[in-house]
């Protein structure tokens, strides 16, 4: 009888131990699955809250903008456009945004206007450069900036580009330090012109 009791107690102890081990495994597995599920939920929320970052394509064209020069009531916009890609580019257009002047003593907002300007020559091989030139009224517009580069027409895809500063605007002599000089022995001829004044000594 004593042997039978000892065997029964041992069997119960083994069963209880197996049950505890099984229960521990279930509890550990439950918390593991719960933690993995929570991590998946957090990752999903972060992906929904954080918009995907756009891929920035490398620049294919470099625009070197000179400071606008003034000629009477006109502002002259010009500069250089260089092909920095590995392929030939043809029919390149620059889209400018012109900023209109706001009339004095009026509270209306400034308006803008878009204008396309061709680059010459029309074909640019890799590393080659072209020019652009445009004259606008300095009384009508207060500024201009490059917004797009296109090929062919306004419906074509944008070309990635970068902008660099070019030549500074030529310094103008203050009013009162400019005069017209007659060429010696010339009847009415001028040595200089309003666009190229000669300073007084």
Q: Features of this protein?
A:
201 residues, alpha+beta, five-stranded mixed beta sheet, 1 helix, 12 strands
What would the average pLDDT be, to the nearest integer? 76
- Gyration radius (Cα, Å) is 38 Å
Question: Count the strands?
Answer: 12
Largest sheet: 5 strands, mixed
Order of helices and strands: HEEEEEEEEEEEE
Helix content: 10-25%
Low-confidence sequence ranges: 178-201
Per DSSP, the total helix count is: 1
Account of the protein in words:
The model is unreliable at 178-201 (pLDDT under 50). β2 and β3 (74-83) form a beta hairpin. The strands form four sheets. Strands 1, 2, 3, 8 and 10 form a five-stranded mixed beta sheet that branches. Strands 6-5-9 form a three-stranded antiparallel beta sheet, with no helix packed on it. It has one helix at 2-49; strands at residues 61-65, 69-71, 74-83, 89-90, 92-100, 112-118, 123-124, 129-137, 141-151, 161-165, 178-179, 198-199. It has 201 residues and is an alpha+beta fold.
Describe what is shown at a glance.
With 201 residues, the chain is of the alpha+beta class. 24% of the residues lie in helices and 33% in strands.
List the helices and strands and how they pair.
Layout: H1 2-49, E1 61-65, E2 69-71, E3 74-83, E4 89-90, E5 92-100, E6 112-118, E7 123-124, E8 129-137, E9 141-151, E10 161-165, E11 178-179, E12 198-199
Parallel strand pairs: 1-10
Antiparallel strand pairs: 1-3, 2-3, 3-8, 4-7, 5-6, 5-9, 11-12
């Amino acid at each position: 009888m004593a042997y039978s009791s000892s065997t029964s107690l041992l069997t119960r102890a083994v069963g209880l131990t197996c049950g505890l081990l099984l229960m521990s495994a279930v509890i550990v597995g439950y918390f593991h699955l719960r933690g993995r599920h929570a991590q998946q939920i957090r990752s999903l929320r972060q992906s929904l809250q954080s918009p995907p970052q756009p891929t920035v394509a490398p620049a294919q064209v470099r625009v070197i903008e000179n400071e606008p020069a003034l000629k009477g009531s006109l502002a002259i916009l010009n500069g250089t456009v260089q092909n920095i890609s590995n392929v030939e580019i043809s029919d390149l257009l620059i889209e400018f945004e012109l900023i209109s002047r706001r009339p004095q003593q009026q509270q209306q907002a400034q308006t803008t206007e878009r204008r396309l300007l061709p680059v010459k020559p029309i074909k640019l091989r890799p590393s080659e450069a072209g020019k652009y030139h445009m004259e606008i009224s300095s009384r009508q517009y207060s500024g201009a900036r490059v917004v797009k580069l296109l090929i062919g027409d306004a419906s074509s895809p944008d070309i990635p580009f970068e902008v660099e500063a070019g030549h500074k605007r030529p310094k103008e002599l203050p009013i009162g330090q400019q005069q017209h000089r007659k060429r010696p022995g010339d009847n009415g001829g001028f040595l200089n012109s309003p666009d190229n004044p000669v300073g007084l000594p």
